[in-house]
Specification:
The protein is built from 12 helices and 9 strands. It is an alpha+beta fold and 419 residues long. Among the domains are: 119 residues, Butyryl-Coa Dehydrogenase, subunit A, domain 1 (Orthogonal Bundle); 140 residues, Butyryl-CoA Dehydrogenase, subunit A, domain 3, CATH 1.20.140.10. Strands 1, 2, 3, 4, 5, 6 and 7 form a 7-stranded mixed beta sheet that branches. A two-stranded antiparallel sheet has the order 8-9. The site of flavin-adenine dinucleotide has 19 residues, from strand 3 and helix 12.
């Protein structure tokens, strides 16, 4: 068996298509949408419609339904290129792909047909999916917005709290408070999700909910295909984000939303059952890091200071070389994980590694690129400050990198070799 690191002609063609689109349609307008003061104005439908017409929301849908019939690796190439131009656009496509990958892995043939056909036959080509899972969390906790606004005060932690470190009563330890109750042939779902990507812009959602009042653990959780226009679904607060503003994030409110039982995904409770989208996140942050490196390299070759172009200063060389090594390493890990996923190798640990590493690299590389720019890096009419803001999301969303550590450690401890 040989190892070949080159892209196939088909893979190179889709990468080039995405890059040309990103260069022509996304990059020139990203700063303009990023600066809109109302977060609801930042979502550029004109860009997304064109991307969808090229098939970027259908890459992994099988050709028999009208999709491009490509794999996760090809989708990651698209997401990386789009994120190179704007990470919010890349993230919108990553979350959409997360839904499709989940359906591909655990959906029934009927569910796949229903969703794929709806996306491929959408007359407006505006079909995105959302993944409403995150909630405020523990039921008895303080609402962070009230806390930040000074409307509530936290209970002071006592010495006994520090001894036990169990400050939340068992009955309130539910991570998922949204509940799905059986009613005849239907599920009736009630709850509230927050931070949800594309909420208010998507047409279909995969929603998580506790099945029945008594279930606490992940095993008691179900996932349901919910149309965004179903009676009882509404959108709450639209988040005003620090970065990645071209993706929309908002609360999703579910008030006795009734869906047929056939809309429940079967057997999907834990991440290892599906590819999980981690490597798609890795593609977003590889794209940001690569862009920051390219900007810094270009700047270092043109900026003249201290008797020479700054690329001749050894300290600047150290920054550039460190950035280049990390971008290439991140990309190799990301592509290798995607390649394994397409072979259903069950290598979930590599996906966790890719998410953690590529998001950390993006934070590091954008900061170093800002350093290469000196004072101009801090100015809003230069590209670095946006890249720094966009990159900072990586270690936070789709599980924080800290939250991924137990998952990665569990996988490492179950393997004879990490290769
Ligand atoms: C822009 C954006 C887009 C998002 N899109 C979506 C989406 O489409 N769908 C969706 O469902 N969610 C989405 N999220 C939610 C995201 O996945 C969560 O914000 C993330 O998982 C962290 O959860 P949290 O915000 O509740 O932080 P918290 O859980 O409150 O974490 C606070 C801190 O505590 C640490 N911490 C918490 N628990 C542990 C633990 N067990 N061990 C160690 N450290 C811990 C964290 O690492 C962090 O440092 C999005 C978030 C953002 C910001």
């Amino acid at each position: 068996m040989t190892i070949d690191f080159s892209l196939s002609p088909e893979q190179e063609a889709i990468r080039q298509l995405a890059h040309d689109f990103a260069e022509r349609e996304v990059k020139p307008r990203a700063a303009e949408f990023d600066r809109m003061t109302n977060p609801a104005d930042c979502f550029p439908w004109e860009i997304y419609e064109k991307g969808n017409r090229l098939g970027f929301n259908k890459t992994i849908i099988p050709a028999e339904y009208g999709g491009l019939g490509l794999g996760e690796l090809e989708n990651c190439l698209v997401v990386e290129e789009l994120s190179w131009a704007d990470a919010g656009v890349g993230s919108t496509y990553f979350v959409h792909a997360l839904n499709l990958l989940t359906l591909e892995d655990v959906g029934t043939p009927e569910q796949k047909k229903q969703v794929y056909s709806a996306i491929c036959n959408d007359p407006e080509d505006r079909f995105f999916m959302s993944w409403p899972d995150t909630e405020h969390g523990v039921a008895g906790d303080l609402a962070p917005r009230d806390f930040a606004a000074g409307r509530v005060r936290p209970r002071p932690l006592s010495p006994a709290d520090w001894m036990t470190q169990q400050t939340v009563p068992r009955a309130e330890q539910r991570e998922v408070t949204t509940i799905a109750v059986e009613d005849g042939d239907d599920w009736v779902i009630t709850g509230m999700k927050r931070f949800i990507t594309s909420a208010g812009r998507s047409k279909l959602m995969l929603v998580s909910a506790r099945k029945g009042a008594e279930s606490y653990d992940l095993g008691g959780r179900g996932w349901f295909i919910v149309p965004a226009d179903a009676p009882g679904v509404s959108i709450g607060h639209v988040e005003d984000k620090m970065g990645q503003r071209l993706m929309q994030n908002a609360e999703v409110i579910l008030d006795h939303v009734r869906i047929p039982k056939g809309q429940e995904l079967q057997g999907f409770f834990t991440r290892p059952r599906t590819r999980g989208g981690d490597v798609e996140v890795a593609a977003v942050f590889t794209g940001i890091a690569r862009r920051a490196y390219e900007e810094a390299l270009g700047y270092a070759k043109t900026r003249y200071k201290g008797g020479a172009h700054i690329i001749f200063h050894q300290a600047v060389q150290a920054l550039l070389c460190d950035m280049a090594i990390k971008v290439l390493t991140a990309r190799l890990l990301m592509l290798r994980s995607a390649w394994q996923n397409d072979r259903h190798a069950g290598m979930t640990g590599h996906n966790y590694m890719a998410k953690i590493y590529c998001s950390d690299v993006a934070v590091d590389v954008t900061n170093k690129a800002m350093q290469v720019y000196g004072g101009y890096g801090y100015m809003r009419d230069f590209p670095l400050e946006k890249l720094v803001r966009d990159a900072r999301l990586g270690p936070i969303y789709h599980l924080t990198n800290e939250m991924m550590l137990p998952l990665l450690t569990q996988w490492l401890s179950s393997m004879d070799t990490m290769y």
